[in-house]
Structure formats: structure tokens, C-alpha cells
Write a structure and sequence with these properties.
The complex is a heterodimer of chains A (about 450) and B (about 280). Chain A is of the alpha+beta class. Chain A is built from 16 helices and 13 strands. The chains are: A alpha+beta (about 450), B alpha/beta (about 280).
Chain lengths: ~450, ~280
């Protein structure tokens, strides 16, 4: 048996894959996340408002999701916090924009360049030089202007505060955001799926993922060529703890034909791992995959139902889910932006307490982030944080093994015969090591 | 000019901030990335081997993230490149990862203490100490602009903290759309308010922080204070301070006054300003 360690590039942060080879096949895989920054500890003893600044710093690509989970947890701890419709809508919008931007960047910058390593001549996707690479980068940073219009900046805005938001957008901010969004709609249709809106709607209705053209079409073709639909299969169990109105609600799929409710009390983090700075998380004792595949499968996206039926939770299903989720989210954001027009004059903020020292209690905030369900829990005594706990999506997907089960990504890698494909499978989870260890 | 970018204890936020640079396509025509961990296809291990064995020349090392005391790779590469750039507050001062770990620091500092990983006397081959581009994250313009200036061969002017004066010689306060409220001492009493200055009650560090956040806008459209969020002083060594949304008071005055303002001057001027503040600033619309 031979042990091989591969340090991955093109992921968020540092992740190492330890592969045990036997007869040309991977018979064990460990996802090692080497370092932790101790962010939960940094929060202890601080005024609870500080968490709104510090928790986004968990992650440079999904920091906004951390802000949203944090503000919800604090509001839960305060209790009876009133929010205007405008504040709720804007929080939803900026969070969804971060997710859409993540998915576009991930597909073009992290996923497609892997096929160059498999010997495919895809010049357009070459890092730093490819035209498609550059265009995708341009579109994703254009999108983030919407977060900045409402939240001041991206990354690391702290505009969501208990009781609302700090900003007061105008009609013209909303109109500008809609203009930016239109360009991204166009990019999705023309570049990502290669067809007009009517054609896309009709194949979406029937779930005909194999009819997708554009860059996702190229991806699907390459996957079939390299048999990626056979790789990356894990437990086939999915979980979503947060809600994305109107198309995602909490639930889980046990692997058989059963959709169940999500019950927070069944979520447990296990002991420290001997090889990773991350802990394992289980639901009712079992490993679950979270993220776009879970969200889109559970919400009955016709594309994902069909592709899952053919290829289960494989590499190809996971990637298609993330890319096609962009459409669902674009539609949701547009509706929400249009709704803002009628609520621009509402207050941004309602005061929910007199003095911070009056606040004692605990709270939980659950949101859907780019990579799946993100849970923040806070314990406050007389206005100060006494304990803070974060369970990130990447802990579900990339966390280590427990006594009984391999981690979700580990399970997906065992059995492969090509190290580049093993890396690709790991990347299909949209690896974020900085979130995994905090 | 060839750049090698490394990430250590970081959230990768500086990478994503940098990727928002509006003219990134043009920049990529001027500078060449030998390696960037989030973007390159090659493995870090192989690139470092090649560089350290003299197989590839690197002009600028960019480090994102705080570093551990035993980071020999960063130390060794710092010796062979012309310039070393610390991008973000973690690489500059240690920031959050260093708060609870004595063995973690920035490249040239640990908070306000000079030294860090590379030591007090470090000068790169190009004759400069570590070029610090703090910020949590650093603004894309500060990162890209510094790299571009280096590629043009300009002699960078650095301040006492090793920060390029181009981006850090003014205060965040400059260009803030709430400046008029500051001048007339009209306070914000509640977050989410369109009016008032956040310095008096909400801990805004704008008048004590060096950055161009309000003159070169974030994502080309806004800034924290423009969105009604206080400045948290993230370009300074003491970020993140305790009580980020609070203005500490001492005998009815802000415990810390804007840089260079005397207590006596502050009391006199703010008293007069408050009395004569125009009505239009005081009413919420």
C-alpha cells in the first residue's frame, strides 16, 4: 500500500488529500484540513455586536452568509425582534447574490480548468488567460456591486444588524441592481446554457439536462467522455436546514424514497479528529451531504430529479446542480428586487432592546450559504458572548470520519483510480477549508 | 513582472477582493502570475520547489494571511524576490488568527510590535521592508495599484507602518457622505438612520483610520459608512478592537478624538457646532 498526499490548489484555503493506493485503486481517502484560526474563541467575552464584524471573517467567499446566520442567531437570542419587509428582502437579496457569484466563479475558475489537466484543449478556460475565464470573473464581480449598493462593500460587509439593516437604498439603487442582474441573466442564458429564455424554460420544465448547451453543455460532454458520471458517488443522503424563499425549504432525504422534516436537535458535532482540524457533524448519527445538490433535489428541480435518477449523487450531478441553481436564484432575486420598489419607504431598522447589558439568552441562526446549510449558535450573558458555535456546510461535506462513517467527500473518493479525478471529485463539493476549520 | 501569491492563515478574502479589481484584464497583461493558490492549475509544492531551486525567477512575493513562526518557505522566498507584499491585515499585523496564538504574526509586525516572521531589520532585495497593504480585506485598488506601481519601477513611498502612502495617507473620513453631520456634531441615535454621524455613538473609526475607502469606492459603488455602517478601523494594527459598534466615552467626550485634534479644541468647536447646526441636518426625512 502506498500513501500519497496531494495539496490542492483552486480551492478556498488549504486542503490536503491523503490517498491510500492499493492495486492502482484508492482504498482510503482522508481530507485533511491542517489549520484553524480559532474564530469562535475570539468571540468569547466580546459584546455581541462584535460578532457581526468578526464572523464574516470566517470566509472570504461566503462571509455574507456568516453575517446573515450571525444576525439571525443574535436576534433569536434577543427575542421578539421586529423586522421590516424591506430589511428582510434586502438581506435575502444580498445573500442570494453572494451565492450566485460564488457558483459562477466556482464553475469557471475551479471546475472547468480541471479538464485542461485531463488533456482537454479548452483554451477559453485557462487560468488568467482564457477569454471565458476572464468573462466569468468580470460577471461575478459585476454582480457583487449589488451587495455593495445595499451593504456598502463585498467582501466583509456588516450591514445587517439586530432589528434590520444599516442602509437606506433609493429607487435608483434598486434600478441599478436590476440592470446589473439583467446582464447576468443574459450571461447565464447565452454563455452558461447556450439558449434563449423560452428554450431554457421548456427544457427546464421537462428536466432535459442533456439538452443544455453553452459551457455547461461542454462540461456535460466532457464528463461523459471521462466517465465522470460514474465517479464521486457518496451516501446519497441530503440535508437542507435553511430556507430560501420561495423555492427551498428545510428538509432531508434519507437515501430511500422519503423526504423528511429537518430537526435541529438531531444535528451533532462529533469529537476532534486525529488528522483534521475540522470536526465531524452528523444528523441522527448519519453523514449527510448539504449544498446545491441537496437543495435542488429536495425542492424538486426537474433537471436535478432527472439527472439524479440516472447518476445518483455523482460528480456530474453535483456540478450540474450548482450551475443550474444559478437560474433559480436569479429568478428569486429579480422578484425580490422588484418588491423593494414598494417598500423603499419602510424603516430599515427597528430598535429591539434598550441597553446591550439587558440581553441574556441563547439563539440560533440557520441560513443557506453557497455550499449549503450554515448554522450559528450564540450564548449571551449581560450583553457579552459567552460561547459561540459555527457549523459550516463544508463541515458536513468535507468533515472527517467518525467512529462509524467516512466523511461525505471521503466516501465519494474511495474506489477511484486516477488522482486528478479524485481531486475533481473533492472540488465538486466546492471545497472551502477556511470555513471547515474557522 | 512575475508574482508568486501564497495564502497562509486566511479567509481568502483578499483574493476575492482583488478579483473585484475593475481593470483586472488590463492588469493581467502587465503582470504575470507564476502561481496563485486559488487560481492556478499547478500544485503549490511543485512551484515552490522550482522557485527555491533557482529554476524560476520571481519578482514579487505576495502573502495573504497570518504566518506561523516556523514558516520556512515564506522566509526563504522572501530572500530571493525583489519585493515582499503583505496583503490584508492578517499578513500585515496578524489580525484575528494572532489574537489567541503567540506563534502567529504578520510578516513584519505582530499587531503594533515590529518584527513578525521576517524580523525588524528585513529589507528585500529591492531595498524595501515588507510592503503592507492592510485592510480586512484590502481594497482591490490598493492591491492592484501597488503591484502596478512596482511593475512600472516606481519607488514606492511607504509610511511608518510600511503602507504605500498613495493609499494610506488620508483618513477614511475623507469623502464620507456623513462629513457634514460630523462637522456640525449631529449624532446618529439609531442604526439604519439616513442622517447623523456614526462617530459619536456607534464607534465609527473613520477619523482615526488611514484608508481611501470613501474616495475610491468599494466595488466601485459604495463604502461601509455610505451604507450606514461604522468604519471598524480595519487597516490599523489594533483591528478588531473590543466593542466595534461602541464609542467609548470619557467624561462626556469620545475617549479617542480624531487624529491630531486636541481635547480643548474639540470641546470648543463641537460646542459651537452643535449650537449652530442647520435644522435640515437634524430632521429625519
Amino acid at each position: 500500500m502506498r500513501i500519497e498526499r496531494r495539496l490542492l490548489s483552486r480551492v478556498e484555503g488549504t486542503a490536503e488529500l491523503e490517498l491510500s493506493w492499493k492495486n492502482g485503486q484508492i482504498n482510503d481517502a482522508k481530507v485533511r484540513i491542517p489549520t484553524s484560526r480559532g474564530i469562535e474563541r475570539v468571540l468569547e467575552g466580546r459584546p455581541f455586536m462584535d460578532a457581526l464584524v468578526i464572523t464574516p471573517r470566517v470566509c472570504g467567499i461566503c462571509g455574507h452568509a456568516h453575517l446573515m446566520a450571525c444576525v439571525k442567531a443574535i436576534e433569536d437570542a434577543i427575542g421578539k425582534v421586529k423586522l421590516s419587509r424591506k430589511a428582510k428582502l434586502l438581506r435575502d437579496i444580498t445573500l442570494l447574490i453572494e451565492i450566485i457569484h460564488n457558483h459562477i466563479k466556482w464553475f469557471y475558475l475551479f471546475v472547468m480548468p480541471d479538464f485542461l489537466r485531463l488533456g482537454e484543449g479548452l483554451n477559453g478556460f485557462e487560468p488568467f488567460r482564457g477569454e471565458k475565464w476572464k468573462k466569468a470573473l468580470n460577471v461575478s464581480s459585476e454582480l457583487l456591486k449589488i451587495v455593495a449598493l445595499f451593504g456598502g462593500q463585498w467582501p466583509h460587509s456588516s450591514y445587517a444588524v439586530p432589528g434590520g439593516i444599516t442602509s437606506n437604498p433609493t429607487y435608483s439603487d434598486v434600478s441599478k441592481a436590476l440592470l446589473i442582474l439583467d446582464r447576468v441573466f443574459l450571461f447565464f442564458l447565452e454563455d452558461m446554457v447556450g439558449m434563449g429564455e423560452d428554450d431554457f424554460q421548456s427544457i427546464r420544465g421537462a428536466g432535459l439536462w442533456e439538452d443544455v448547451r453553452g459551457d455547461l453543455g461542454i462540461f456535460i460532454e466532457l464528463c461523459m467522455k471521462h466517465r465522470m458520471e460514474e465517479f464521486g458517488i457518496s451516501y446519497n443522503r441530503f440535508i437542507t436546514g435553511g430556507e430560501v424563499f420561495p423555492f427551498v425549504s428545510p428538509g432531508h432525504f434519507t437515501g430511500e424514497k422519503k423526504l423528511c422534516f429537518f430537526n435541529l436537535s438531531k444535528v451533532k458535532e462529533c469529537y476532534e479528529s486525529p488528522y483534521s482540524a475540522a470536526r465531524a457533524v452528523r444528523y441522527g448519527g448519519l453523514p449527510y451531504e448539504t449544498g446545491p445538490l441537496a437543495r435542488q433535489f429536495l425542492s424538486g428541480n426537474p433537471f436535478i430529479k432527472r439527472v439524479h435518477k440516472s447518476f445518483k449523487d455523482s460528480y456530474v450531478t453535483r456540478v450540474i446542480s450548482r450551475v443550474l441553481e444559478v437560474w433559480e436564484m436569479l429568478v428569486a432575486v429579480k422578484d425580490k428586487l422588484i418588491s423593494i420598489y414598494t417598500s423603499v419607504d419602510e424603516p430599515s431598522f427597528y430598535s429591539s432592546y434598550r441597553k446591550p447589558e439587558d440581553i441574556s439568552g441563547s439563539g440560533v441562526g440557520i441560513v443557506e450559504a453557497a455550499r449549503g446549510t450554515l448554522i450559528h449558535r450564540v450564548w449571551i450573558e449581560k450583553g457579552a458572548i459567552v460561547r459561540y458555535q459555527i457549523i459550516t456546510p463544508s463541515v458536513w461535506n468535507l468533515g472527517p470520519r467518525c467512529e462509524r462513517f467516512l466523511g461525505v467527500a471521503e466516501k465519494a473518493i474511495v474506489g477511484l483510480r486516477n488522482p486528478v479525478q479524485a481531486e475533481m471529485v473533492l472540488r465538486s463539493f466546492d471545497v472551502c477549508s477556511v470555513c471547515t476549520t474557522r | 513582472m512575475r508574482i508568486l501569491w501564497l495564502q497562509r492563515l486566511s479567509c481568502c478574502g483578499n483574493t476575492h477582493s482583488f478579483l473585484n479589481y475593475e481593470k483586472i484584464e488590463a492588469l493581467l497583461k502587465n503582470v504575470d502570475f507564476a502561481f496563485h493558490p486559488s487560481l492556478s492549475n499547478e500544485s503549490e509544492h511543485r512551484v515552490l520547489q522550482r522557485v527555491l531551486s533557482g529554476g524560476q525567477r520571481i519578482d514579487v512575493l505576495v502573502v495573504e494571511g497570518a504566518v506561523q513562526k516556523d514558516d520556512k518557505e515564506v522566509k526563504r522566498i522572501s530572500e530571493v524576490v525583489d519585493f515582499v507584499v503583505a496583503v490584508g491585515s492578517c499578513a500585515s499585523y496578524g489580525n484575528i488568527p494572532a489574537l489567541h496564538r503567540e506563534d502567529v504574526s504578520g510578516l513584519g509586525y505582530r499587531f503594533k510590535e515590529k518584527g513578525g516572521l521576517l524580523g525588524t531589520d528585513f529589507l528585500s532585495k529591492g531595498g524595501l521592508p515588507v510592503i503592507n497593504i492592510p485592510g480586512c480585506p484590502a481594497h482591490p485598488e490598493w492591491i492592484a495599484g501597488t503591484l502596478l506601481n512596482l511593475s512600472m519601477g516606481t519607488k514606492l513611498k511607504l509610511d511608518e507602518w510600511g503602507r504605500p502612502k498613495d493609499y494610506y495617507s488620508n483618513l477614511t473620513h475623507w469623502g464620507c457622505i456623513r462629513n457634514e453631520y460630523f462637522e456640525w456634531k449631529v449624532e446618529t441615535h439609531q442604526l439604519g438612520s439616513k442622517k447623523g454621524c456614526l462617530f459619536y455613538n456607534f464607534g465609527c473609526r473613520g477619523p482615526m483610520t488611514h484608508s481611501s475607502c470613501n474616495t475610491v469606492l468599494w466595488n466601485c459603488v459604495s463604502s461601509k459608512t455610505r451604507a450606514g455602517t461604522p468604519c471598524f478601523g480595519c487597516t490599523e494594527f489594533d483591528f478588531p478592537r473590543m466593542g466595534l459598534f461602541e464609542t467609548k466615552q470619557f467624561a462626556g467626550l469620545p475617549a479617542e478624538l480624531p487624529i491630531g485634534v486636541s481635547k480643548r479644541g474639540y470641546i470648543m468647536i463641537s460646542g459651537v457646532a452643535k449650537v449652530f447646526a442647520p435644522e435640515r441636518l437634524k430632521v429625519e426625512d
